[in-house]
Predict the 3D structure of the following.
Amino acid sequence: MPTLKNIVTVDWRSGKDKIYFIFKDTDTYSRFDIPDNKVSDGYPWPIKENWGTLENHMQNLRFGFTTTGITLDRPMDFSDLDILWLFYYERTTPMVCAYNQDTDAVMQTRKVEDTKWKLLLPYFDRIITGTWWQVNRSSLFRFILNDGNSLYLDWDEVPQNPQIDYADDKYDDNLFNTVVAPIQTIRLEAITETTWPGLTAYKDRIITGVQKDRTFADNYYYIFLTDNQYLTYNIPKNRLESGPHSVNNESWPGLLRN
């Protein structure tokens, strides 16, 4: 049975919800269709020729997650925008790609230091996984590090002119950072029974994590561990819901397919 290791998982919210598993050791990926509760037939697929301009960066992918209604660092319509944020290294430079799930195309690629995610830079090579933490507000993000710590990132995106609606081909780079004024804070926290109830016993075994967008009041964060196990963490309640469970053909049908 294949062993899950050196993988990155990301969520997909446009259309039918999905989870993508990126297997970096084999340059392949699988798509888990949440409504069908299985990996679609024929997967895993090769990354080459299936991820466009991103295929050359998947080997250096660090983590990623999806947001809805959150903008880039430029004027745009953000009413129902699903963006997959992919964080990776280009040589030694931390980069972030904003991938538009609605159009299935890259919207923007920038150095992390030039974006609203710049506060992640001191911790970039220690981040295992991160997710949008949709509880009461839309500007919270949490990240799990490889040293027993975690990050709590908070920024309030304040539209200065929400009526502006710029199509991609009308974008003026001179307007960069003029429409949104994020007020950012970041906090380094040890993983304890106070910050991540139930997770402390597993903090040294985490290999990746991904959110399953069930309902606004009941979102789960699936945290994958060594030895083909996973945890179910309840985001709104901020506690371990259950686990560890075995990753097998009953819990994740088709995922361990060669």
